[in-house]
Amino acid sequence: MTLLALLATALLFGGMVLYSFGFAAFLFSSLPAMQAGPLLRRAFPHFYLFVLVASVVAALCLLSNDMTGAALMGLVAATVIPTRQVLMPAINLATDTGRTRRFKALHTLSVGITIGHIGIAAWVLSRFI
Q1: How far apart are CA 88 and CA 70, in angstroms?
Q2: Average per-residue pLDDT in the chain?
Q3: CB within 8 A of 124, min separation 6: which ones?
Q4: What is the C-alpha to C-alpha distance for residues 86 and 44, in angstroms, rounded to an integer?
Q5: Angle at CA 14, nearest 5°, toward 109 and 40?
Q6: What pLDDT is recorded for position 108?
Q7: For residue 33, is pLDDT > 90?
Q8: How far is residue 101 CA from its own chain's centroid?
Q9: Which residues of 1-33 are buried (b: 16+ CB within 10 A; e: fewer)?
């Protein structure tokens, strides 16, 4: 189970970093903003589902030998649900209605949550050393 926990946590960490700092940046540097934005919007629900599944798998695999790591991965799973189901639709609504200040505030919150998730995954990974 330790190997599966390591792989799930590494997949979570790598996937979040690649999506956040690679895919999103690539879209906006390769496509006009009017195309990149809607495409990124369509990808986000899948990203959050990936984070949910990977963090739950990691948490379950960590239960037998690292309760702290399991709890932290459980925290990621628990916080990604309202991020996906509440925060993301609020960000989209702010965009659609032209509420720029609200969009910026909500987007900043979502970025902070994602950076927090990346940091938690990194810290759990460091516990394998």
Answers
A1: 26
A2: 96
A3: 9, 58, 62, 66, 69, 72, 73
A4: 13
A5: 50
A6: 98
A7: no
A8: 23
A9: eeeebbebbbbbbebbeebbeeebeebeeeeee
